[in-house]
Amino acid sequence: MDRAREPLHPGFHCFPRLLALMGYGKGPAFPGVQAFVAEDGSAVWVSTAAEGDAVAPIHVAFQAADNDAVKAFYDAGLANGGTDNGEPGPRPSYGPTYYAAFVHDPEGNNIEAMLA
After folding, report:
1. Which is nearest to 104 in space by CA: 88, 85, 89?
2. What is the helix (H) or strand (E) element at residue 5, kind and residue range?
3. Neighbours of 19 (CB within 10 A)
């Protein structure tokens, strides 16, 4: 099978917009794989699964700069095909200063923007 010609998954279009709000820009790319790199050099890699592989949704959280960035992340997630999984707001059960928003991407992954 030639995986080199396969595009990233259909929900990929939301990642550049959401990660840009968390300070990540597009980095290196390979067939079926895209990196997003922050100014400090940290990176997140998004890739496709091999055909036939069982894939379970994941939860990933990104540190936001402030409450406004959490809200912008949430709004952008909904505007780009995501669904609500928790509006921006305090999460006292996670910690006294924890503030977050949650969006399910089109594949069901739980993407979070947070401040601790």
Report:
1. 85
2. none
3. 21
pTM beyond 0.70: the answer is yes
pLDDT tens column, 46-62: 887 778 887 788 898 99
Q: Which DSSP state fits 66?
A: S
Q: In what order do the strands lie in the sheet containing 24-30?
A: 24-30, 33-38, 43-47
Query: Which amino acid type is present at position 93?
Result: S
DSSP string computed for 17-59: HHHHHTTEEEEEEETTEEEEEETTS-EEEEEPPPTT------E
Read off the tokens for 94: 């996670």
Closest CA to 69 of 21, 19, 15: 21
